Amino acid sequence: MPNIKIFSGRSHLDLSQKIADRLGLELGKVVTKKFSNQETCVEIGESVRGEDVYIIQSGCGEINDSLIELLIMINACKIASASRVTAVIPCFPYAQQDKKDKSRTPISAKLVANMLSIAGADHIITMDLHASQIQGFFDIPVDNLYAEPTVLKWIRENISEWKNCTIVSPDAGGAKRVTSIADQLNMDFALIHKERTKANEVDCMVLVGDVNDRAAILVDDMADTCGTICLAADKLLSVGATRVYAILTHGIFSGRAISHINTACFEAVVVTNTIPQENNMKHCSKIQVIDISMFLAEAIRRTHNGESVSYLFSHVPL
Q1: Is the pLDDT of residue 197 over 70?
Q2: Where do transmembrane segments lie in this chain (predicted)?
């Protein structure tokens, strides 16, 4: 693959290395440091003139630092005469703030989109956006990949009685995602209607559907404090579910999330590695990780070669 350079920010070096290894490339040289006043400084250590540049940085860890680092790396490559700069953002930062749901609140996802465009990004590759309309916040191409093919594969390979399971969405917003998976597996689906008193606090839950004498598989795009998904698991057991699994694309697991999972009734909590999970796995044996580096690597390869990326929406790359 000539005329291509891949650089990694500091948020998820392990994933970046897996992507580079799959493409048979070396990660580009980049030095990132902070001055004593905490300003971020980035030095690109090799020529990018005329190159097709891909910068991998996930929205995790110190999210604000990761975002600023990404913006500076994009700008550094752009003013160093890179022909195209693509930001590969496995977990899009501020994606939960995608609409104005009350007075005087910002649409921060739109602000991040503007910042990426102004920094010089020509293309965005991301995975399972919290809301698909975030793609419309950009005036540049956005490829929103889906973890769904790997979810289908994991269910078939790891749940012996999967044909007698029910796919459950923990909220109404995830109904489309759940029905798509249920249709492809020819399974029943259900959803949980929840009412919130305030952010991250759920007042009550109502199950719409049937999980009696069946294993239930909760599917969502992200879990932050895990309060909602743990309450959903308790609700499913109370109405007759035999076992409960959770499958999530982005395992943010902030605050007391790990202790919530440890005390909850999950058989397994399955997440992708859009966010590093090594430390979480040490403290919680229920967490299992699906590697999605092959999706991002194949998306980079196809983008660089001018091929269609839509194949990845329904197939796991070999």
Answers
A1: no
A2: none
* Distances, alpha carbon 239 to alpha carbons 71, 164, 167, 191, 230, in Å: 48, 16, 15, 13, 15
Between these two residues, 196 and 268, which has the higher pLDDT value?
268
Strand partners, 90: none
What does the alpha-carbon distance between residue 37 and residue 181 come to, in Å, rounded to a whole number? 49
C-alpha distances in angstroms, 246 versus 4, 49, 229? 38, 45, 8
Provide CB contacts within 8 A for 18, sequence distance 6+: 291, 293, 297
CA–CA separation, 306 and 308 (whole Å): 7
pLDDT of residue 200 exceeding 80 = no
Q: Are strands 201-208 and 215-223 parallel, antiparallel or unpaired?
A: unpaired
Looking at residue 282, its pLDDT comes to 94
Pairwise CA distance, residues 166 & 115, whole Å: 41
Q: Which of 3, 1, 31, 33 has its CA nearest to residue 19? A: 1
Indicate if the pLDDT at residue 178 is higher than 80: yes
Residue 2 Cα distances to 26, 37, 46, angstroms: 12, 39, 15
Q: How confident is the model at residue 172 (pLDDT cuts 50, 70, 90)?
A: confident
- Integer-rounded Cα Rg, in Å, for the chain is 20
The answer to whether 9 and 70 are in contact (CB under 8 A) is yes
Place of tokens 């910068």: 55
How far out from the chain centre does Cα 254 lie? 15
Structure tokens of 152?
């289908």
Q: Are strands 30-34 and 123-127 parallel, antiparallel or unpaired?
A: unpaired
Q: Are 230 and 248 in contact (CB under 8 A)?
A: no
